[in-house]
Amino acid sequence: MKTQWHLASRLQTVVIAALGVVLFSALGLPLPFLFGPMAACLFAALAGAKLRGLGQISVAARTILGVAVGASISPDLLHQLPLMAASLALIPFYIALIALIGVPFFSRVCGFDRVTAYYAAMPGGLQDMVIFGQEAGANVRTLSLVHATRVLIIVTIAPILLTQLYGVALNNPIGAPASTIPLQEMGLMIVAALVGWKGGERVGLFGASILGPMIVAAVFSLTDLIHMRPPKETILAAQYFIGMGIGVYYVGVTLRELRQVVASGVAFVLLLAVLAAIFTEIVTLSGLAPPVEGFLAFAPGGQAEMTVLAIVAGADLGFVITHHLTRITLVILGAPIVARLFGVKKL
To answer: What predicted TM-score, i.e. pTM, was given to this entire model?
Structure first.
C-alpha cells in the first residue's frame, strides 16, 4: 500500500512538472524545462500537494551535466588554468566573508542554534551541508529549507540579471540533437556517466553524480575520444529533473516555517547577493574575467544549476565551473574542520 502511495505521489509530481513545462513554453518564458517544473512543483507544494521526488532517477539526471562539463575540458582549458589563478585565489576570502556574516546572522538575528546556523551559512552543496549538519546535530528541516531557498532564488534571479543587466539572450544552443552525434561518442558519454557516478560513489567522492562523470568525460575529451556535449534532449531532461527537485523540497512547509525559516533564507540570499556583486566587480574591473563569466563564477548557486545557466548563456563553461568546484570543494573539505574550531562538534 505504501509503495502504491509513493508511486502515485511520484506520478503526480511528474505530471505537475510537465504541466509547468507546457505553461512556460506556451508563454514564451525562458528556460521552460528548468523554471516550468520548478515553479509548478513549488506552488503545488505550498498548496499542500503530496509531491515526491524521483530518487535515483533525479540523481542520474545530474550525471548528464557532469558529462557536459567534462566534455568541455580540453587542452586549451588546461592551458588557461594559470590565468584563472588570481580569481580562484579570491574564493577562500569569499567563503570566509560569507561565514563571518552568515553564522552571526542565523544565530543572533534568526535565532538558530549554533550548529544549524553554521551549516546554514556554508555555501556548499545543498545535500552535503544537510548531511554534515545532520551528523553534527543540526535541524535538518531548517537546513533543507534554507539551502533550497538559496538555490531557488539564485536560479530565479540570475537569468533576469543576465538578460537585463548583461544583455545575454540565454538562447545559446545547449547541445546538438541526438541524431547528429556519432553513436561511438554517445556510447562513451553513457560510459562516462555510469562509471563516473557509481565509481565515484564507491570511492566516497562527494558530489559523485556530477564530479565522477565529469572526471571520466574529461579524460575522454583530453584523449580526443569525445568532441561534443551530450545531446540537447538529455540536457533538457536534466533541467526538468533539477527544477522538479527544487520545488519538491517545499513539500509540507508550514506557515511558521515560511515566516521564520524561508524568510531567513531569503534575507540571507540578499546578503550573499551583495558579496557576490562585490567579488564580481573585483574580478571584472581588474580584468580577471569578462562580466558574464565573473557573475556566474561567484553566484552562490548550486553547481548543477550554474552549469545549466553557463551553457544557455554561452559563457566559458570551464571558467565558471572551475570556480564553483573550487568553492564547493573548499566548503566540503573545510566545513567540518572549521566547525570543530568554532566548537560545533559532531554528536
So the answer is: 0.78
